[in-house]
Amino acid sequence: MSIRDINQDWINQFDKPLIIAGPCSAESEKQVMEIAERLDKDYVQVYRAGIWKPRTKPGSFEGVGAIGLNWLRRVKEEFGMLTATEIANASHAKLALEFDIDYLWIGARSTVNPFAMQEIAESLRDTDKVVLVKNPVNPDLDLWIGGLERLAAQGIKKLGVIHRGFSSNNKSKYRNNPQWQIALELKDRFPNIPIICDPSHIGGTRELISEIAQQAFNLEYNGLMIETHCNPDEAWSDAKQQITPERLKEILVDLTIRKKNDLSDDFSSKLNRYRGEIDELDNQLLGLLASRMDVAKKIGILKKDHNVAIFQPDRWNVLKKLAIRNGSRMGLSEEFLDHLLISIHKESVDLQNKIMDDI
């Protein structure tokens, strides 16, 4: 079965964008129930909680385990909410199905591993649950699509993806660079696959959630997954990116939802997508410039230690000629490149001057 041919009617059951919210980690039954009670059910349809937490390093909190599935079942029974949790292996999948969890998502660390994806797909064979695939840690669209194809091959028809951003060594305001163009390419190639944005993991701080969520809706995403906690600062995992249920409602109320109603919306839709790509590229440029200035500082320290002058005319002329030649091949005008290089060089010189003056 091709994922392009699957009719994803499950997303159309909601009269509003799909909102999945709840704590990064289920910590106690009391915590899980308090958050569920405080969430506004007019906006949030699905309650999420991490039961098993795959962490980068051992020794940190890695989830309460299967006992938390009882708490999610109680949320469904008492509040009538759909429930969701992350599964990372076949054992997790089996338990989640036994406890009738409605939405199962596969995390970035699992998506990046085809062997793990195949194991999970086989354990979920022919399930009627909704299965969502987070983008892999690295920016690899084929790997992301491959995960969907493995699930579809096992007869799983209710599929979607979660865009949570990609790891990067470049400096950025984001925890995980959104790289919107990758998610938009998936959306263009498979318009039938619902796409959910995870502003919590993209931003890494609660202050960025509203901005990222709005950008996702500008790009016609189908919904959001946002980490929500009754006491965010005391959360056992990812405290900085969690918000209270009350703050979540404020954000959701203020969001502008973009919808296609007629042919004229095609222009707005494409314009928003292109602007999203520009925003992402601008962010990458800023990260690269910041990294370049870090190297300039190291050079300044080296020059100071060896009592070498900051400005080296021969080096500057070679750098400038090379950059203009390469940039011209890429279609950039010489005038633009000249202005850009002079500004970058001036900032580098100013940084090195400060290092020289710091005795």
From TrEMBL:
EC nos: 5.4.99.5
Pfam families, per the entry: CM_2 (PF01817), DAHP_synth_1 (PF00793)
A GO MF term: chorismate mutase activity
Enzyme class name: isomerase
Gene3D superfamilies: Aldolase class I, Chorismate mutase
Signal peptide (UniProt feature, chain positions): none
InterPro entries: Aldolase_TIM, Chorismate_II_sf, Class-I_DAHP_synthase, CM_dom_sf, CM_II_prokaryot, DAHP1/KDSA
Coiled coil segments of this chain: 264-291
Sequence ranges assigned to domain Chorismate mutase in this UniProt record: 265-356
GO biological process, any: chorismate metabolic process
Assigned keywords, A-Z: Coiled coil, Transferase
The protein, known as: chorismate mutase
Organism of origin: Apibacter muscae
